[in-house]
Write a structure and sequence with these properties.
By secondary structure, the chain is of the alpha+beta class. The protein contains five helices and 22 strands.
Length: 294
């Protein structure tokens, strides 16, 4: 890609010894404490200035020496970060975190809020040609970029994540579903972090809102107040590995087919069929996608 990388923070330890990160911009040590199993809730964060005389007491001596050596090397040989180069696609910020226990995830979100560009105009297709949807001038519109099922272990629910592209979103808004050519009410919008869900009453361009998906949303769908256009589809990478998948228990064939169909809808893998439609194959860019499917 020809893009340089610049470390915004740096890990303290790795694997089971990973206890925090150093924010290189503020010169602070962020220490994390796990509050639940599997990252089900936000980790507790303690901030300590690197200039604090007692900062060494928070980190084992061997890790402290290793950390200082690595930070010195970054200052000398690492790439510098500036927002202008980031917006031009010349440098990418690098963050260290653990999604497994939520260590470093929240500071990453906070940093991206400051770094990311404001919402801009987005091209869209109409029957008469291409138009541009302005985030301020145009009425509400949004794009479905992700589907996620079974986010609530008590219910077999599915959530569609919408990126607000223009206008103002309000709870209970009645919108047009462009692909299905029908109206629907977005009655239970929410935002989430780990297991925390909060009802969203208002949202603006750039915000992400989750809505209950009763099987009517697909990745790439456009919704708006007036309709008449569709946003450009997400980039699609050509698959490089292929496989046949069969249920181990033939008696559970229907459940198996439903599960594969759900994973395909979420974009985990692609589903291909033979010319006669009798055989089906799954396709992916990398082996990790097959591990998720399995």
């Amino acid at each position: 890609l020809g893009i340089h990388s610049s470390a915004i923070n740096w890990p303290v330890g790795s694997g089971r010894e990973f206890t925090g990160v150093v924010d290189r911009r503020t010169r602070e040590l962020l220490l994390f404490t796990k509050k639940s199993v599997g990252g089900a809730s936000k980790a507790a964060v303690e901030r300590v200035s690197l200039g604090d005389p007692g900062v060494k007491d928070h980190v084992p001596e061997d890790l402290w020496k290793k950390l200082n050596s690595e930070l010195e090397l970054l200052e000398v040989a690492g790439n510098t970060y500036d927002r202008e180069s980031f917006l031009k696609g010349q440098v990418t910020p690098v963050f260290f975190a653990s999604a497994l226990n939520n260590f470093g995830v929240e500071p990453f979100f906070d940093a991206i809020v400051d770094m990311a560009p404001p919402p801009g105009p987005r091209p869209a297709d109409t029957p008469s040609g291409e138009i541009v949807i302005d985030p301020v001038e145009n009425d509400f519109s949004a794009y479905v970029f992700k589907l996620q099922a079974n986010m609530n272990p008590k219910h077999r629910d599915s959530t569609a994540f919408l990126r607000i592209c223009s206008g103002r979103f309000e709870r209970d808004l009645v919108v047009k579903h462009h692909r299905l050519n029908k109206e629907l009410r977005l009655s239970r919008p929410h935002s989430m972090l780990a297991q925390d869900r909060n009802t969203v009453d208002l949202a603006y361009p750039g915000d992400v809102v989750g809505v209950i998906n009763p099987g009517i949303f697909a990745i790439g769908d456009t919704i708006s107040l007036k309709g008449g256009f569709n946003f450009k589809p997400l980039p699609s990478f050509q698959p490089e590995i292929f496989a046949r998948v069969r249920p181990k228990d033939v008696a559970k064939g229907k459940s198996f087919d439903k599960g594969v169909e759900q994973m395909t809808a979420e974009g985990t893998v692609q589903m291909l069929s033979s010319w006669d439609g009798l055989e089906f194959f799954v396709a992916a860019v990398g082996k990790l996608q097959f591990d998720v499917l399995q």
